[in-house]
Design goal:
The protein has 374 residues and is an alpha/beta fold. It is built from 15 helices and 13 strands. The protein is globular and about 60 Å long. It starts with a strand and ends in a 12-residue tail after the last helix.
Length: 374
């Protein structure tokens, strides 16, 4: 029996690994452990540990990694400490991490330095800002790569990764997007007491490399939303440096009947609300990944998603009040078509399971080698 440890620190990465955990939990050949940390344990962001517990996974371990300083380097150090201790108890055969968070980097460091296979979900992608530095660092620390598409595979090979370690499975959240697990719109609205008939989604995150300007950026954003006439479902940012500026600015939305503000939404409910929204505005990857699948118009603000693989007709604007206002003025007439993105066909969990059931993957060399490109 192989012991597989999944690490999750945010609602976003959990949406990417949920279907993979569920697939392995049904198999007798695997014993699954879920290490829960980061935003999941913070009340201000909705204490989303509850959503993980609702899945009834057999082995859930929690570890609070946030510090009062909320700097990413200290969060990284604390996560390494907690995960290392847990790994010594569990002794996993593989650690599965996702994306480009500091918790992800902690998982890759702990695994690679303790002779544990590290599997990275969605490596080889470009995301800009400090996130991209973390993502590529995790890729170099990982032994196995489960990528979304051929472009990501090509980048990893460009980075010296061996082709035999790369497996294209698509983006696992697509499994949920087109599953029968999504609630009806009426149920989602009733659950969150949303009375709007029509509405847009707001998701705006801090950009750590632009921390000095973030307070002004979010002020411009909130001012533009208040001057607009759409109804909005607003979801809190992630907990990166600068998030407090956004939370403070959102205080101005309180009491305004055009806004419903939430620390977090259950992923399946979020997808239903997104699928039926007028548009999404902000700088979230949901506007790059999920929204195009549903044919939802997108206003992307600023640099956070710069260079991201985009397969949709997106309205891009800078952080200025005039730029955001202008984008909002044309969004109602902006027509988009749902696209066949190259992020998989909704069977990532099956492909992931098939890979782990083959002996080849377990025979990959723990001692990584750099493969020169031809």
């Amino acid at each position: 029996m192989k012991k597989i440890l999944f690490l999750t620190g945010t609602r976003a990465d959990f949406s990417k690994i949920k279907s993979l955990i569920q697939a392995l939990e049904k198999q007798q050949d695997f014993q699954v452990y879920v290490f829960v940390t980061g935003m999941h344990l913070q009340e201000v962001y909705g204490y989303t540990l509850i959503e993980i517990e609702r899945c009834n996974f057999k082995n859930i371990h929690t570890f609070a990694n946030h510090t009062h300083e909320t700097t990413m380097d200290l969060t990284l150090a604390k996560t390494i400490e907690g995960l290392s201790a847990y790994c010594k108890d569990v002794n996993p055969d593989m650690i599965v991490v996702h994306g480009d968070r500091v918790e992800t980097l902690a998982g890759a460091i702990v695994g690679s330095l303790n002779n544990i296979l590290v599997a990275h979900i969605e490596g080889g992608e470009v995301s800009g800002t400090v996130d991209e530095l973390i993502r590529h660092s995790v890729s170099k620390l990982s032994h196995i790569h489960f990528v979304s598409n051929k472009q990501a595979q090509k980048r990893l090979i460009q980075m010296g990764e061996i082709k035999e370690s790369i497996f294209t499975i698509g983006s696992p959240d697509v499994d949920i997007m087109f599953s029968n697990q999504l609630p009806d719109l009426k149920i989602a609205k009733e659950y969150y007491k949303i009375n709007f008939e029509n509405y847009a989604i707001v998701m705006f995150h801090p950009v750590t490399t632009e921390i000095k300007e973030m307070q002004q950026y979010v002020k411009n954003f909130v001012t533009s939303l208040l001057q607009d006439n759409h109804n909005y479902i607003v979801i809190f940012p992630n907990n990166d440096l600068g998030s407090q500026f956004i939370l403070d600015a959102y205080e101005k939305l309180k009491g305004n009947e055009r806004f419903r503000v939430f620390p977090s939404l259950r992923f399946e409910y979020f997808l239903t609300l997104l699928k039926n929204s007028q548009f999404i505005i902000g700088n979230s990857s949901a506007g790059i990944r999920e929204a195009p699948y549903y044919g939802i118009p997108i206003i992307n603000i600023g640099t956070r998603q710069q260079n991201r693989a985009v397969h949709a007709d997106i309205i891009n604007t800078d952080y200025s009040e005039s730029g955001i206002t202008n984008a909002l003025s044309i969004i109602n007439s902006h027509q988009v078509k749902s696209v066949d993105n190259d992020f998989g066909k909704g069977n990532s969990n099956e492909l992931f399971l098939q890979c782990l059931q083959k002996a080849d993957i377990w025979q990959l060399n723990h001692q990584k080698q750099f493969r020169d490109s031809n």
